[in-house]
Fold this sequence. Notes:
By secondary structure, this protein is an alpha/beta fold. It has a single domain (about 5-120, about 170-220), classed as P-loop containing nucleotide triphosphate hydrolases (Rossmann fold, 3-Layer(aba) Sandwich). About 50% of the residues lie in helices and about 15% in strands. It has eight helices and seven strands; from the N terminus they run βαβαααβαβαββαβα. The chain has helices at about 15-25, 35-45, 45-60, 65-75, 95-105, 120-130, 170-190, 205-220, and strands at about 5-10, 30-35, 85, 110-120, 130-135, 140, 195-200. A five-stranded parallel β-sheet has the order 2-3-1-4-7, sandwiched between helices. It has a two-stranded antiparallel ribbon with strand order 5-6. Helix 1 (about 15-25) crosses helix 8. The longest helix has 24 residues, at about 170-190. The two termini are about 15 Å apart. The model has no long low-confidence stretch (mean pLDDT about 95). It binds adenosine monophosphate. The site of adenosine monophosphate (AMP) has 17 residues, from helix 2 and helix 3.
Amino acid sequence: MKKKIFIFFGPPGSGKGTQADLLCQEVSWHKISVGELLRKELKMGSQLGEKARRHVSQGELVPSLIINNLIRNRLDKCKNYQGYVFDGYPRNIEQNENFLKIIKDVFGDKCDIYALEIWIEDREAKERLENRLACICGAVYHKKYNPPKSSNKCDICGKKLFIRSDDKPNVIKRRLKVYHQESEPLLKFWEKSDKLIKINGDKSISLIHQGIVRKLKTLGLLN
Ligand code: AMP
């Protein structure tokens, strides 16, 4: 059976990381989130983390060469899943070209690739990001709409929650701009290939998840 590969697109704050987690948990697929991988490297203070730090804190994309290598290494370590969700990669045309090469190299023709866009208005994205609490394990919370059970502690791993350094108003503005300029053109690429699935992200977490599962089932991409 061919492997299923999904790229999740959406502006920062669209909830694509949360939705990627929920889908992967439900169908035992593997999520690869570049943002999470980078935050771990930043926390460790690794060489890669230090190269990425300035870009991440300013809301800019980290140079694609670094990211492409990160993805290649990650994928080499986990080749045996039936499905993959890429959260936050590829994010520009250059990365898209590399992504296609890496996938071909690792899986040959034994996979089908789809793009899934979770769309929300910038206004809504800003509101969500300004109220976001994050955990190093990848979990995210909203101060009002999805608060942790015990204040400032992750429900999943118990670690202390933090406000991401790139969730400041001026950085949020820059990240949204970068998304519209760099990542949105990729949606046209996937739309032209008839591989783009669109999901309205302006709903509750569970309704969006149900919507994704329903759509994938309707398209015959999930059993
Ligand atoms: P995210 O967690 O997806 O919001 O990503 C946080 C930050 O990590 C972004 O604002 C970028 O600085 C960096 N980043 C994440 N994914 C990529 C990527 N594919 N290419 C370059 N930089 C990225």
